[in-house]
Here is the input.
Amino acid sequence: MNRPVADVLIVGGGVIGCLTAYYLSKAGQKVTVVESDAIASGASGTSGGWLTPYSHKYDPAMLALSPKTLELHRELSNILPEETGIDHGFEETPYLRCALTEDGAAELMSWQADRANEGTAMRWVSPEDARQINPWLTADTEGALLSENEPTLDSYRLTLSAVQAAEKYGASVVSGRVTGLTRGATTRHATGVTLEDGSKVAGGAVLLAIGPWTGACSSWIGSPLPVKPQRGQMVYLARPEPDEGPELKSGFSAVELSGSVIRKRLTNTTVGATREDVGFDRSTTEEARDFLLSQMAKLSERVLSARITGQTACLRPVTPDGRPYVGRAPRWDNVYVAAGHASEGIHYSPVTAVAMADLIKDSTTTIDLAALDPSRAGSS
Ligand SMILES: Cc1cc2nc3c(=O)[nH]c(=O)nc-3n(C[C@H](O)[C@H](O)[C@H](O)COP(=O)(O)OP(=O)(O)OC[C@H]3O[C@@H](n4cnc5c(N)ncnc54)[C@H](O)[C@@H]3O)c2cc1C
Here is the structure.
């Protein structure tokens, strides 16, 4: 069956696809999102929701996009709930990076100096002040680096809200697994996509936004897109009842430990996350749960006494150089790629979506995507 033609087909209903659908349909484009599972069924539905450019490896090319993406997140936190009635839990909140040893303190202070040179102010606080800021900290620390604001949100709600708002502006969602592109008279012009059941969906442009599954697109476009899955597991802790001790006041981690504890306004506290190369296996393990809790218990005994409410595993989309592929697919005139945001896809989702929407509808964007050009995959 052939369906009506959309201006833009977006393959993948994660945060990148749904936010791009939102901006495009709000600008009057007719958008169809094609999703093989459920909206936000990938990492976008079960991420930590921490908005920071410093969750893992630090990358200047990405950092340059951080102020713009935060500005867009703030805008979305006001506008989307009005458009959909869904509060996605955005909250401006501090974050503490602790040191358990003198070496750790020295490492953090040197890291702080680098951030200060880039214009990001963070303040060193004493162990007492750190405990005051966040009473969950029970370990003897050497002090902590206080970042006044690294917001958090619920990424499942953000993604759902984005697609619902897009639908309000006329977008539609089609259920199906895309298996390839359909081509026009010129070989580098797509006319739509083919689904697993053999049906076709027509579109004026195609955006490939399928996160860790993007490797499959290499054969569709005839150029490499080496995105691989990396499993991340997280454990969820119930908020303490008033008689069970103090509330978690900020996120925290330690430079000597793996993982972090993230405060959420609407949902349970998250303790995450592992980094595992196990292909597309999305099962959870006891080993990961014990590892995460034991790491964070070295900073906070409360992590062990809190009630565990759940555990999830999902897949980060990881590229060889750690940067996402965002831009036009090499040698195609109407196929685009936005995938490979690794540990920071929620943080960078609005800036990616705005850039993609600009590029698709106007062929240009003021957001500097040079370092993210998908064609670099073929030259490495
Ligand atoms: C444990 C963990 C914690 C994280 N925490 C944070 C955090 O705190 N902050 C942050 O910024 N980032 C975080 N991330 C990273 C972030 O979650 C991801 O970078 C982001 O969700 C990727 O979004 P996406 O839309 O590219 O991909 P996905 O969310 O994976 O969405 C891709 C979608 O494409 C669909 N799809 C796949 N193949 C096809 C096909 N052939 N046809 C149609 N549809 C298809 C999938 O079903 C899926 O719904 C975390 C990741 C993990 C794993």
Summary: Residues 282 and 313 are 5 Å apart (CA to CA). The domain at 6-85+155-226+321-379 is CATH 3.50.50.60 (FAD/NAD(P)-binding domain). DSSP finds eleven helices and 16 strands in the chain.
